[in-house]
Amino acid sequence: MRAAGSALLAALDEPERTRVAHRFDDDAARRWLEYRPRPRPGVCLADLDRAARKAAHRLLATALSPTAYAQAMAIVALEEVLDRAEGWRRGRHSDDYSVAVFGDPDRDDAWAWRVEGHHLSVSMTVVDDQVSPAPVFFGANPAAVRYAGRPVLRPLGVEEDLGRAMLDAMGPAGRAAAIIADEAPADIVSATRPRVDGPLEPLGVATDRLGPGARALVGQLVAAYLERLPPALAQHEAQRLDGGQLHFAWAGSTRPGQRHYYRVQGDDLLVEYDNTTDDGNHAHTVLRRPASDFGADVLAAHHARAHG
Questions:
Q1: Torsion of the alpha carbons at 59, 60, 65 and 70, rounded to the nearest 10
Q2: Measuring CA to CA, which of 143, 201, 223, 279 is 20 to 30 A from 156?
Q3: What is the DSSP letter of 57?
Protein backbone atom coordinates (compact mmCIF):
# COMPACT_ATOMS: atom_id res chain seq x y z
CA MET A 1 0.00 0.00 0.00
CA ARG A 2 2.87 2.38 0.80
CA ALA A 3 4.53 1.52 -2.50
CA ALA A 4 1.31 2.15 -4.43
CA GLY A 5 0.76 5.45 -2.62
CA SER A 6 4.28 6.59 -3.44
CA ALA A 7 3.88 5.49 -7.07
CA LEU A 8 0.72 7.55 -7.36
CA LEU A 9 2.37 10.70 -6.03
CA ALA A 10 5.34 10.15 -8.36
CA ALA A 11 2.99 9.89 -11.36
CA LEU A 12 1.52 13.36 -10.75
CA ASP A 13 2.78 16.73 -11.85
CA GLU A 14 3.18 19.45 -9.25
CA PRO A 15 -0.30 21.05 -9.58
CA GLU A 16 -1.94 17.62 -9.40
CA ARG A 17 0.17 16.63 -6.40
CA THR A 18 -0.86 19.81 -4.63
CA ARG A 19 -4.53 18.88 -5.06
CA VAL A 20 -4.01 15.26 -4.01
CA ALA A 21 -1.77 15.78 -0.99
CA HIS A 22 -3.15 16.90 2.38
CA ARG A 23 -1.72 16.96 5.85
CA PHE A 24 -2.48 13.86 7.87
CA ASP A 25 -3.81 16.05 10.67
CA ASP A 26 -6.35 17.71 8.34
CA ASP A 27 -9.22 15.86 9.99
CA ALA A 28 -11.91 17.78 8.13
CA ALA A 29 -10.62 16.36 4.86
CA ARG A 30 -9.43 12.97 6.13
CA ARG A 31 -12.43 11.95 8.26
CA TRP A 32 -14.74 12.22 5.29
CA LEU A 33 -17.37 9.99 3.70
CA GLU A 34 -19.44 11.32 0.79
CA TYR A 35 -21.16 8.93 -1.60
CA ARG A 36 -23.30 11.52 -3.34
CA PRO A 37 -22.12 13.41 -6.45
CA ARG A 38 -20.64 16.36 -4.55
CA PRO A 39 -17.31 18.22 -4.54
CA ARG A 40 -14.69 16.46 -2.44
CA PRO A 41 -11.04 16.81 -1.41
CA GLY A 42 -8.47 15.40 -3.83
CA VAL A 43 -7.95 15.34 -7.58
CA CYS A 44 -10.47 13.93 -10.05
CA LEU A 45 -9.32 10.96 -12.15
CA ALA A 46 -10.75 12.71 -15.21
CA ASP A 47 -8.07 15.39 -14.80
CA LEU A 48 -5.17 12.90 -14.75
CA ASP A 49 -3.28 11.30 -17.59
CA ARG A 50 -3.47 7.59 -18.28
CA ALA A 51 -0.46 6.62 -16.16
CA ALA A 52 -1.69 8.56 -13.14
CA ARG A 53 -5.20 7.14 -13.44
CA LYS A 54 -3.74 3.65 -13.53
CA ALA A 55 -1.64 4.44 -10.45
CA ALA A 56 -4.83 5.49 -8.62
CA HIS A 57 -6.51 2.22 -9.60
CA ARG A 58 -3.51 0.25 -8.38
CA LEU A 59 -3.71 2.03 -5.04
CA LEU A 60 -7.42 1.24 -4.79
CA ALA A 61 -6.74 -2.41 -5.62
CA THR A 62 -4.39 -2.74 -2.61
CA ALA A 63 -7.43 -2.25 -0.34
CA LEU A 64 -9.88 -4.60 -2.08
CA SER A 65 -10.12 -8.30 -2.77
CA PRO A 66 -10.36 -9.27 -6.47
CA THR A 67 -14.14 -9.74 -6.20
CA ALA A 68 -14.61 -6.42 -4.40
CA TYR A 69 -12.45 -4.66 -6.98
CA ALA A 70 -14.76 -6.11 -9.65
CA GLN A 71 -17.75 -4.76 -7.71
CA ALA A 72 -16.09 -1.35 -7.49
CA MET A 73 -15.42 -1.26 -11.23
CA ALA A 74 -19.03 -2.26 -11.96
CA ILE A 75 -20.21 0.57 -9.68
CA VAL A 76 -17.98 3.02 -11.56
CA ALA A 77 -19.29 1.78 -14.93
CA LEU A 78 -22.88 2.27 -13.77
CA GLU A 79 -22.32 6.03 -13.89
CA GLU A 80 -22.53 5.79 -17.69
CA VAL A 81 -25.64 3.61 -17.48
CA LEU A 82 -27.30 6.04 -15.07
CA ASP A 83 -26.35 9.01 -17.22
CA ARG A 84 -28.07 7.43 -20.21
CA ALA A 85 -31.16 6.56 -18.14
CA GLU A 86 -31.37 10.21 -17.04
CA GLY A 87 -31.23 11.40 -20.65
CA TRP A 88 -27.62 12.59 -20.32
CA ARG A 89 -28.85 15.60 -18.31
CA ARG A 90 -26.45 15.27 -15.34
CA GLY A 91 -23.28 14.66 -17.31
CA ARG A 92 -22.26 11.74 -15.09
CA HIS A 93 -18.97 10.11 -16.03
CA SER A 94 -17.08 6.99 -14.97
CA ASP A 95 -13.93 9.08 -14.37
CA ASP A 96 -15.68 11.37 -11.86
CA TYR A 97 -13.86 9.77 -8.92
CA SER A 98 -11.26 11.46 -6.77
CA VAL A 99 -8.16 10.32 -4.94
CA ALA A 100 -6.66 12.02 -1.90
CA VAL A 101 -3.54 11.21 0.13
CA PHE A 102 -2.98 12.40 3.69
CA GLY A 103 0.62 12.52 4.82
CA ASP A 104 3.64 11.05 3.04
CA PRO A 105 3.69 7.29 2.47
CA ASP A 106 7.49 7.35 2.06
CA ARG A 107 8.40 9.29 5.18
CA ASP A 108 5.56 9.30 7.69
CA ASP A 109 4.69 6.63 10.23
CA ALA A 110 1.04 7.60 9.83
CA TRP A 111 -0.61 8.36 6.50
CA ALA A 112 -3.95 7.69 4.83
CA TRP A 113 -5.69 7.75 1.48
CA ARG A 114 -9.16 7.68 -0.03
CA VAL A 115 -10.68 6.93 -3.43
CA GLU A 116 -14.21 8.30 -3.66
CA GLY A 117 -17.01 9.35 -5.96
CA HIS A 118 -20.68 8.64 -6.54
CA HIS A 119 -21.51 5.35 -4.81
CA LEU A 120 -17.90 4.49 -3.95
CA SER A 121 -15.82 5.54 -0.94
CA VAL A 122 -12.81 3.55 0.27
CA SER A 123 -10.72 4.98 3.13
CA MET A 124 -7.53 3.38 4.47
CA THR A 125 -5.30 4.55 7.30
CA VAL A 126 -1.77 3.17 7.65
CA VAL A 127 0.23 3.53 10.87
CA ASP A 128 3.62 1.82 11.05
CA ASP A 129 2.87 -1.61 9.57
CA GLN A 130 -0.84 -1.68 10.47
CA VAL A 131 -3.77 -0.90 8.18
CA SER A 132 -7.11 0.31 9.53
CA PRO A 133 -9.65 -0.41 6.77
CA ALA A 134 -12.82 1.63 7.14
CA PRO A 135 -15.19 3.03 6.07
CA VAL A 136 -15.82 1.10 2.84
CA PHE A 137 -18.96 2.23 1.02
CA PHE A 138 -20.37 0.58 -2.14
CA GLY A 139 -23.61 1.67 -3.80
CA ALA A 140 -25.34 0.93 -7.08
CA ASN A 141 -27.88 2.86 -9.15
CA PRO A 142 -29.50 1.01 -10.76
CA ALA A 143 -29.03 -1.83 -8.30
CA ALA A 144 -29.97 -4.29 -11.04
CA VAL A 145 -30.09 -4.10 -14.82
CA ARG A 146 -32.25 -6.92 -16.20
CA TYR A 147 -33.09 -8.46 -19.53
CA ALA A 148 -36.35 -10.45 -19.70
CA GLY A 149 -36.32 -10.68 -15.91
CA ARG A 150 -32.75 -12.00 -15.76
CA PRO A 151 -29.91 -9.94 -14.24
CA VAL A 152 -27.40 -8.46 -16.67
CA LEU A 153 -25.57 -6.47 -13.99
CA ARG A 154 -26.18 -6.59 -10.23
CA PRO A 155 -23.06 -5.48 -8.35
CA LEU A 156 -24.53 -5.82 -4.84
CA GLY A 157 -26.63 -8.91 -5.46
CA VAL A 158 -24.71 -11.07 -2.98
CA GLU A 159 -25.32 -8.57 -0.18
CA GLU A 160 -29.06 -8.48 -0.90
CA ASP A 161 -29.46 -12.23 -1.34
CA LEU A 162 -27.64 -13.11 1.88
CA GLY A 163 -29.69 -10.58 3.83
CA ARG A 164 -32.91 -12.10 2.54
CA ALA A 165 -31.67 -15.64 3.19
CA MET A 166 -30.85 -14.59 6.74
CA LEU A 167 -34.38 -13.25 7.26
CA ASP A 168 -35.94 -16.40 5.80
CA ALA A 169 -33.81 -18.74 7.95
CA MET A 170 -34.58 -17.25 11.34
CA GLY A 171 -38.20 -18.43 11.64
CA PRO A 172 -41.30 -16.48 12.77
CA ALA A 173 -40.06 -15.63 16.27
CA GLY A 174 -36.68 -14.49 15.02
CA ARG A 175 -38.23 -12.40 12.25
CA ALA A 176 -40.60 -10.75 14.72
CA ALA A 177 -37.60 -9.64 16.79
CA ALA A 178 -35.49 -8.69 13.77
CA ILE A 179 -38.03 -6.55 11.91
CA ILE A 180 -37.83 -3.17 13.60
CA ALA A 181 -40.10 -1.15 11.27
CA ASP A 182 -42.58 -1.68 8.46
CA GLU A 183 -41.04 1.19 6.49
CA ALA A 184 -37.40 1.28 5.50
CA PRO A 185 -35.39 4.42 6.28
CA ALA A 186 -34.66 6.76 3.39
CA ASP A 187 -30.95 5.89 3.48
CA ILE A 188 -28.39 4.06 5.58
CA VAL A 189 -28.73 5.47 9.06
CA SER A 190 -25.05 6.30 9.52
CA ALA A 191 -25.24 8.32 6.27
CA THR A 192 -22.17 10.48 5.59
CA ARG A 193 -21.39 11.21 9.24
CA PRO A 194 -17.66 11.09 9.97
CA ARG A 195 -18.40 9.48 13.34
CA VAL A 196 -20.98 6.95 14.48
CA ASP A 197 -21.52 7.24 18.20
CA GLY A 198 -22.57 3.95 19.76
CA PRO A 199 -24.86 1.25 18.39
CA LEU A 200 -27.86 2.16 16.27
CA GLU A 201 -31.18 1.55 17.99
CA PRO A 202 -33.20 -0.60 17.99
CA LEU A 203 -30.71 -3.42 17.83
CA GLY A 204 -33.02 -6.07 16.37
CA VAL A 205 -32.46 -9.74 17.19
CA ALA A 206 -29.37 -11.08 18.96
CA THR A 207 -27.94 -13.82 16.78
CA ASP A 208 -27.37 -16.14 19.74
CA ARG A 209 -31.17 -16.39 19.95
CA LEU A 210 -31.31 -17.89 16.48
CA GLY A 211 -30.96 -21.45 15.27
CA PRO A 212 -27.74 -22.82 13.81
CA GLY A 213 -28.81 -22.26 10.21
CA ALA A 214 -29.52 -18.56 10.73
CA ARG A 215 -26.34 -18.12 12.80
CA ALA A 216 -24.31 -19.64 9.97
CA LEU A 217 -25.93 -17.27 7.51
CA VAL A 218 -25.15 -14.19 9.58
CA GLY A 219 -21.54 -15.35 9.55
CA GLN A 220 -21.69 -15.56 5.75
CA LEU A 221 -23.32 -12.13 5.57
CA VAL A 222 -20.64 -10.47 7.70
CA ALA A 223 -17.95 -12.30 5.72
CA ALA A 224 -19.34 -10.86 2.47
CA TYR A 225 -18.54 -7.39 3.81
CA LEU A 226 -15.23 -8.21 5.51
CA GLU A 227 -14.03 -10.03 2.40
CA ARG A 228 -14.26 -6.83 0.44
CA LEU A 229 -10.81 -6.44 1.96
CA PRO A 230 -7.69 -8.37 0.88
CA PRO A 231 -7.35 -11.77 2.62
CA ALA A 232 -4.89 -10.70 5.34
CA LEU A 233 -6.99 -7.68 6.30
CA ALA A 234 -10.25 -9.64 6.13
CA GLN A 235 -8.80 -12.35 8.38
CA HIS A 236 -7.59 -9.76 10.88
CA GLU A 237 -11.04 -8.16 11.00
CA ALA A 238 -12.75 -11.55 11.41
CA GLN A 239 -10.42 -12.45 14.31
CA ARG A 240 -11.16 -9.11 15.93
CA LEU A 241 -14.88 -9.94 15.90
CA ASP A 242 -14.58 -13.64 16.74
CA GLY A 243 -16.88 -14.69 19.55
CA GLY A 244 -18.56 -11.30 19.92
CA GLN A 245 -22.32 -10.82 20.02
CA LEU A 246 -24.00 -9.71 16.80
CA HIS A 247 -27.44 -8.19 16.22
CA PHE A 248 -29.42 -8.24 12.97
CA ALA A 249 -32.20 -5.76 12.18
CA TRP A 250 -34.49 -5.43 9.15
CA ALA A 251 -36.85 -2.62 8.13
CA GLY A 252 -39.28 -2.37 5.24
CA SER A 253 -40.84 -4.93 2.95
CA THR A 254 -39.70 -8.55 2.93
CA ARG A 255 -40.78 -8.94 -0.71
CA PRO A 256 -38.14 -8.76 -3.47
CA GLY A 257 -38.35 -5.58 -5.50
CA GLN A 258 -39.76 -3.57 -2.60
CA ARG A 259 -37.97 -1.04 -0.41
CA HIS A 260 -35.96 -2.65 2.35
CA TYR A 261 -33.04 -2.17 4.74
CA TYR A 262 -30.94 -4.24 7.10
CA ARG A 263 -27.99 -3.84 9.42
CA VAL A 264 -25.63 -6.03 11.42
CA GLN A 265 -23.94 -4.65 14.51
CA GLY A 266 -21.29 -6.03 16.82
CA ASP A 267 -18.36 -4.89 18.88
CA ASP A 268 -16.87 -2.11 16.71
CA LEU A 269 -18.76 -3.36 13.64
CA LEU A 270 -21.54 -1.75 11.65
CA VAL A 271 -22.80 -3.15 8.36
CA GLU A 272 -25.70 -1.36 6.67
CA TYR A 273 -27.59 -2.12 3.48
CA ASP A 274 -30.51 -0.21 2.00
CA ASN A 275 -32.46 -0.40 -1.22
CA THR A 276 -35.06 2.27 -0.62
CA THR A 277 -35.26 4.65 -3.58
CA ASP A 278 -36.19 4.27 -7.26
CA ASP A 279 -38.77 1.64 -6.26
CA GLY A 280 -36.20 -0.57 -4.60
CA ASN A 281 -33.58 -0.42 -7.36
CA HIS A 282 -30.97 1.87 -5.82
CA ALA A 283 -28.73 0.28 -3.17
CA HIS A 284 -26.30 1.60 -0.57
CA THR A 285 -24.00 -0.55 1.58
CA VAL A 286 -21.30 0.31 4.08
CA LEU A 287 -18.77 -1.43 6.30
CA ARG A 288 -17.83 0.73 9.29
CA ARG A 289 -15.98 0.39 12.60
CA PRO A 290 -17.75 2.96 14.79
CA ALA A 291 -15.05 3.09 17.47
CA SER A 292 -12.12 3.03 15.04
CA ASP A 293 -13.21 4.45 11.68
CA PHE A 294 -10.48 6.42 9.89
CA GLY A 295 -7.72 4.71 11.84
CA ALA A 296 -8.69 5.62 15.38
CA ASP A 297 -7.56 2.19 16.62
CA VAL A 298 -4.09 2.14 15.05
CA LEU A 299 -3.51 5.81 15.88
CA ALA A 300 -4.34 5.19 19.55
CA ALA A 301 -1.96 2.22 19.65
CA HIS A 302 0.77 4.26 17.97
CA HIS A 303 0.41 7.16 20.41
CA ALA A 304 0.48 4.75 23.36
CA ARG A 305 3.74 3.24 22.11
CA ALA A 306 5.29 6.61 21.26
CA HIS A 307 4.32 8.36 24.50
CA GLY A 308 4.25 5.49 26.97
A1: -130
A2: 201
A3: H
